[in-house]
Specification:
With 309 residues, the chain is α+β, with helices and mostly antiparallel strands. The protein has five helices and 19 strands.
Length: 309
């Protein structure tokens, strides 16, 4: 059951919010805890769902206490005989180059849409809701593979029913900083923030930190030892340190001008001190406030070195 909008209801105040607008709201976390069916006859709670593809959708809360009112346009008491459950086998695996590029492009688009929201799609007044039918306890079990990201892992392939192979990659969830919560602990993420400072620690075990901000949210991106030693492009440690030093000098001369948009991992999130880990140079992309995007670390270094930005 999908919805194009929801009612945000809190402290006696109600507001109808379009689905596409919800992720851009600064009070995003508050909104998704207090959204309801848009039908005026109904008090059913809704859930804001976020797929790893970046696609968002609204659905009814699973609790039986939140069924739609009998007068609601989304009410439906039909019964479907079978529901499907997928049991996953968890394996470790890596990403294809195309997989990294696609995820970074999606992340860069998410930031651009946040900074410069596209025009909302006009609502179709003749569109009728398509309720999801209720299910019985009868179930059908399917089996699948879920991939945990391993920077040293091989790309996983799954056998399909017709005998072909399908590439299975780990999911990286779109989360702009104001959308992060403790529920995102231990996840693969895609996010963006303005670079404020770059710190480089040169030793036998090189590391670096990029200090960033997004509104009033501060995030530290850590580049641990695997970032320097395990990258697929085989950039040397000295070369990576040189690249980070170039970015460091650029940020010092041009504060608040460039975003880091990157794939990363979280551990146990402390919302007062958010730390995320960038495990590969190829996870990084960069975006300027004036609308220029650089899909790789080497691309932004070339732009800085030639004075293009």
């Amino acid at each position: 059951m999908k919805f194009d909008e929801a009612v945000f209801r809190l402290d006696g105040v109600e507001e109808v919010i379009l689905l596409d607008e919800i992720p851009r709201r600064d009070n995003f976390l508050e909104i998704i805890q207090n959204i309801y069916c848009p039908d005026p006859h109904c008090d059913a709670r809704l859930v804001f769902n976020r797929r790893s593809t970046g696609k968002n959708y609204l659905s009814k809360h699973k609790s039986s206490d939140n069924d739609h009112d009998i007068d609601c346009d989304w009410y439906n008491d039909d019964v479907k005989t079978v529901k499907s459950i997928t049991e996953y086998t968890t394996v470790n695996g890596g990403l294809t180059e195309e997989g990294k590029k696609r995820r970074k492009k999606e992340a860069m688009k998410a930031l651009r849409d946040y900074l410069d929201p596209p025009e909302p799609k006009p609502k179709n007044p003749n569109k009728k809701p398509t309720p999801k039918k209720k299910t019985t306890e009868s179930t059908e079990t399917k089996r699948g593979i879920k991939v945990n990201y391993d920077p040293n892992g091989e790309v996983v392939q799954e056998n399909t029913e017709n005998g072909d192979f399908k590439v299975k990659e780990p999911s990286f969830y779109e989360r702009l900083p104001h959308q992060l919560s403790v529920k995102d602990s231990g996840e693969n993420l895609r996010t963006s923030a303005i670079i404020k400072e770059v710190k480089i620690f040169k030793s036998d075990n090189p590391q670096a930190e990029i200090k960033t901000v997004f509104g009033d949210i501060q995030i530290t991106f850590v580049m641990p030892e695997p970032f320097f030693l395990g990258n697929e492009r085989r950039l040397s440690v000295d070369q990576l340190i040189e690249y980070l030093e170039i970015i460091k000098k650029y940020v010092e001369a041009h504060p608040n001008e460039i975003y880091l948009t990157t794939m990363c991992q979280s551990r146990e999130l402390d919302m007062e001190d958010i730390i995320l880990y960038v495990l590969e140079p190829d996870f990084m992309s960069f975006q300027t406030k004036d609308g220029r995007d650089f899909e790789t670390l080497t691309a932004v270094i070339a732009a800085i070195s030639t004075g293009a930005i």
